[in-house]
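Lab notebook, page 48
Experiment: co-folding of the full assembly
Goal: obtain a model of how the components sit together before planning crosslinking
Operator: M.T.
Materials (sequences as entered):
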Amino acid sequence: MQDKIHASYKQLEQKSKYTNMFLRWFLYFVLVVFAFYFIFPLYVMVVTSLKTMEEIRQGTLLTWPSGLNFDSWLVAWGGRGYGAGDTFLKPYFWNSIKMVVPAVFFSTFIGAMAGYVLTKWRFKGDKWVFLFLLFGCFIPYQAILLPMARTLGVLGISNSVIGLVLVHTVYGIPFTTLFFRNFYVSIPSELVKAARIDGAGFFKIFFKILLPVSTPIIVVTIIWQFTQIWNDFLFGSTFSFGEAAPIQVALNNMVLSSTSVKEYNVDMASAIIAGIPTLIVYVLAGKYFIRGLTSGAVKG
Amino acid sequence: MLKWLEKNLPKIVMAPAVGLIGWFVYGFVLWTLYISFTNSKILPKYELWGVGQYVKLWGSRKWLIAVDNLLIFTALFLIFCVVIGIILAIFLDQKIRAEGVLRTIYLYPMALSFIVTGTAWKWILNPTLGIQKMFIDWGFENFTFDWLVNREMAIYTIVIAGVWQSAGFVMALFLAGLRSVEDEIVKAAKIDGANLFTVYWKILLPMMRPVFFTSFVILVHISIKSYDLIVALTQGGPGISTTMPALYMTQTAFHKSQVGLSAASAMMMFMAVAAVIIPYLYSELRRENAR
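Observation: model returned without errors.
Model output:
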């Protein structure tokens, strides 16, 4: 039956070859037009950052820069070297790194443990516990901002990197749990049962059986958490200001504080610097990034 | 003692996650709900004041504008993201050369923050040196594009940037959905004389119902929460013409020091999200149980 379908399908393909030719050109045309639309802002950002203000005023958005001029990048990263009012990204970039690394580590670890228990050490009502955690993926963070601000104040860690690590760890847990739970569900429980009969304990089973096969989901989770936390603005702007601010907040402040003349080339260079870490991760590990996006969404 | 520990170890390991979420999500939402029933200004007050804040909220012109903007934004954002996402997914599904490269291009905005992309769009859309100048220099001398600084039109610039950022995501969801359909179904339909258009319109797209549902939930969720993009692009301006609920909430709390009112607006947002998410989680859970 399958062979028959295949054969008559081949025949059909031959017949419609010419209409197909036209259709394919149309396909490629539309796809390429959209590709230009999507690439356009990135292109504009890069060329603008390489121009001088003079060039920007004379040319258009699309004009090619006269040379590779990285001055705006240096100003965006390290400032102009005069004292007060000179904001630049370097210290905030490090703030973000100090915030992202522990927050990603803790949330991934807690999520892995929760996912492990929810699938391999099932208990009565575990489905409800999962649902209880899952709902945390969806709450609008506005509904927790005021108590959080108060709590951080009471703990004495408002306006600090430590405070932001706590916030990002906590609100990352629903996502990391979801990832690990959905991954461990697909690993046969027989392995775990056999190990239990052999007398292996809770942690031994995790480290000897599950952890060695968990690399893909760990990569997915780390990339997801890294991207989310690096790109966060709401928490950063609400719970920190001044020197403790992460990079997205600093970028926004830089772009808004137009003391004298608006320097679009420095703005664009700053935006690229703030976006480059996640962009590099995306280009290098796009497969895992997309997996995080779709499994975070579809599986629910 | 040791035996008890061993037996309950899984639950003990589970405890931090449950405890943290219980306190920081559920506890805080209830806390916010409580604040919304008080007359808190700069600092929270804890005597109950009734529903006064909600009455005040729905009588506030700025909040009504914010809700109005949210409805406009959500409708357009949904339509454009889904239409563009489906077109791209279907076209990419035709054994396209360089599919990987195109997919990477369509989806890269998702890796960037709204502050980064908002900064870029603000520069592109600015009337003096941006897109308007580009067209004028190309010889369209009367070309004007001042939406960013135009009260009536500024909300649509947020739609442009939002769609640009999220359409690739919908594409990825639909592409994954289309790829999971058996090849034989399509082949059989073609032998029966169905053309490509009919195959998609009558067979494949109706099969994508869960993907439509998921996209709808995710996109509505993104739009209710949208905050960063507005801050980067318009800061709610010109005037208050592009205020949205999320921006209203933080401005009311942290600039106007009306904590009670702000909590009321946060609860309205919470209820809007819950109205979309709870049916979604319910149906997902049922599907999983059916398996």
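Interpretation: The first helix of chain B runs from residue 2 to 36.
Next step: discuss with group before ordering constructs.
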